[in-house]
């Protein structure tokens, strides 16, 4: 049985779309049913099934939770696009690739790139186009593209795309690298020959196809979001070993190695953060890590009227020793309001939030979201500022905007749940926290907040169970949240302590 022979009717696709909306909050429109069909064709043979309706029934059962998580990375195949995250590609094209090419030429070899999780091929073909546009010869760029989904890999190797999937390709590139054939655009033989497609499972413990220190750069965007923390750490170790010293790792905006014990260094290039395997100082690979900023004297809060706000997190009830956790984005000075890179501007917004200057934080957040629409942290922080000021409808709009960009953003689901708590909508809050925990089962804060909702709904047994789940994550690595929301703890130990307090309070009732 192969994916080629499986028949999947529209009814099964509609059932699966409804299930994904219910469990993960992932809205798949009929335009995305082709991606669903590819995903089902890849997964059904693994379970020995050839009936699509039976496969969906299996997913709905409790035992189907694991399979549903295995399906998610394949379902999102429809979210890929050419030159996705234009700021990252600009940094790659203008600053990183020219230096990599120069270095490779000195060593008489090709630049080796790996698109890990290539889906239907838009990303590796984009990398190859950048190489040619920056003056590389076809044999000077070796792009290896891999994906878990064999059906997607097979389609990617064909290099045929409908016009609606080429929106990110400029007119000159469309004319140079594509030919129109039978109503579809096909990549030129020159471009196709620069990319090698293969199946590959990133979660496998051994990667026999990858030699140590053989890659110059790895694109792995919007993939590790589906992995648990131990798997992420194992993958990062293998990525590190696969890269040459000075090699680069591109992750998605919704993915961060912040507070994870990896060996990568994080460097700002062209206003975006990219990870790099450290290189000896004399090696000529840009850029050198910036020196730490000089300590900044803390500023006293300015005398200004306090905006009418709802509590930061209604019912969170964290003791002060637990709630006052350090912010993951340390404030640093900026030359003037609204200036600098997106990273600097976001740090400035965080500083305004901590000082209590919410009106200015709101103005700067709006401007940053307009200037950097792809920046997930900017969108989420905009929503958080609105939530802090009690503007719940505006907060939800910002979070939904983030979900349009990253449909499986755990943070957006978590913040939507907090906004629902603030509005007193406990059923909606429960739904959003449940979705967040489906995407990230080890999210201690999600378990804690879900317990809070259960308390509000007068369901002490469910509350106790969720508090115990939060405590069980005590020894696990923390989940660094994207987007700044003050007083949300990130330490699993702190969350476990708060959960123990609440359990004790429940037992006294």
Could you explain the architecture of this structure?
By secondary structure, the protein is of the alpha/beta class. It contains 20 helices and ten strands. It has helices spanning 10-24, 33-43, 52-60, 65-75, 86-106, 122-133, 150-158, 171-177, 189-193, 229-242, 320-323, 342-355, 358-371, 376-388, 392-405, 410-422, 426-439, 444-456, 460-472, 492-507; strands spanning 111-116, 141-147, 160-161, 178-181, 184-187, 195-199, 215-220, 243-251, 265-269, 272-276. The strands form two sheets. It has a seven-stranded mixed sheet with strand order 6-2-1-7-8-10-9. The longest helix is centred in the first third of the chain and has 21 residues, at 86-106.
Give a brief rundown of this model.
The protein is an alpha/beta fold and 509 residues long. Helix content is 48%, strand content 10%. The strands form two sheets. The protein has a seven-stranded mixed β-sheet. A three-stranded antiparallel β-sheet has the order 3-5-4.
Structural descriptors:
509 residues; alpha/beta; Chemotaxis Receptor Methyltransferase Cher, domain 1; Rossmann fold; Serine Threonine Protein Phosphatase 5, Tetratricopeptide repeat; 3 domains; 7-stranded mixed sheet; 3-stranded antiparallel sheet; 10% strand; globular
Strand segment tally = 10
The Rg value, from CA coordinates, equals 24 Å
User: What is the chain-wise order of helices and strands?
Assistant: HHHHHEHEHEHEEHEEHEEEHHHHHHHHHH
Seen as an oligomer or otherwise, the chain set is single chain
Distance between the termini: 58 Å
Give the integer mean of the pLDDT values: 82
Describe the main β-sheet briefly.
7 strands, mixed
């Amino acid at each position: 049985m192969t994916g080629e022979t499986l028949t999947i009717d529209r009814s099964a696709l509609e059932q699966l779309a409804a299930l994904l909306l219910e469990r993960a909050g992932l809205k798949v429109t009929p335009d995305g049913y082709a991606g669903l069909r590819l995903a089902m064709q890849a997964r059904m043979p693994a379970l020995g099934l050839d009936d699509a309706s039976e496969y969906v029934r299996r997913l709905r059962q409790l035992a189907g939770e694991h399979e549903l998580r295995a399906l998610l990375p394949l379902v999102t195949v429809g979210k890929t696009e050419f030159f996705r995250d234009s700021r990252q590609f600009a940094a790659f094209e203008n600053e990183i690739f020219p230096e990599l090419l120069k270095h490779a030429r000195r060593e008489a070899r090709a630049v080796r790139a790996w698109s890990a999780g290539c889906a239907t091929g838009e990303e590796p073909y984009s990398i190859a186009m950048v190489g040619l546009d920056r003056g590389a010869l076809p044999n000077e760029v070796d792009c290896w593209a891999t994906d878990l989904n064999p059906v997607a890999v097979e389609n990617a190797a064909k290099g045929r795309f409908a016009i609606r999937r080429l929106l990110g390709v400029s007119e000159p590139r469309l004319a140079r690298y594509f030919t129109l054939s039978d109503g579809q655009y096909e990549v030129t033989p020159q471009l196709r020959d620069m990319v090698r497609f293969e199946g590959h499972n990133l979660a496998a413990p051994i990667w026999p196809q990858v030699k140590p220190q053989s890659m110059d750069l790895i694109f792995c965007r919007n993939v590790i979001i589906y992995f648990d923390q131990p798997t992420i750490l194992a993958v990062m170790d293998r990525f590190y070993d696969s890269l040459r010293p000075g090699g680069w790792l591109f992750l998605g905006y919704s993915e961060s190695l912040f507070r994870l014990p990896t060996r990568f260094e994080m460097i700002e290039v062209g206003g975006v953060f990219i990870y790099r395997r450290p290189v000896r100082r004399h090696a000529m690979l840009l850029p050198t890590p910036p020196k730490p900023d000089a300590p900044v004297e803390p500023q006293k809060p300015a005398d200004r009227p306090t905006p009418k706000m709802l509590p930061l997190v209604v019912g969170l009830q964290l003791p002060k020793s637990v709630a006052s956790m350090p912010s993951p984005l340390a404030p640093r000075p900026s030359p003037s309001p609204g200036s600098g890179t997106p990273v600097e501007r976001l740090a400035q917004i965080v500083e305004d939030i901590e000082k209590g200057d919410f009106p200015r934080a709101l103005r700067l957040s709006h401007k940053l979201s307009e200037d950097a629409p792809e920046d997930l942290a900017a969108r989420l922080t905009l929503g958080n500022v609105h939530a802090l000021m009690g503007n719940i409808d505006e907060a939800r709009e910002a979070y939904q905007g983030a979900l349009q960009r990253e449909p499986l953003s755990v943070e957006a689901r978590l913040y939507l749940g907090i906004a629902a708590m603030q509005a007193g909508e406990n059923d909606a809050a429960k739904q959003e926290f449940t979705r967040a925990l489906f995407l990230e089962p080890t999210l201690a804060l999600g378990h804690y907040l879900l317990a809070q909702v259960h308390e509000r709904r007068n369901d002490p047994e469910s509350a106790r169970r969720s508090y115990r789940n939060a405590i069980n994550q005590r020894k696990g690595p923390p989940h660094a949240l994207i987007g700044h929301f003050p007083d949300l703890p990130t330490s699993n130990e702190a969350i476990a302590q708060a959960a123990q307090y609440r359990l004790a309070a429940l037992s006294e009732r």
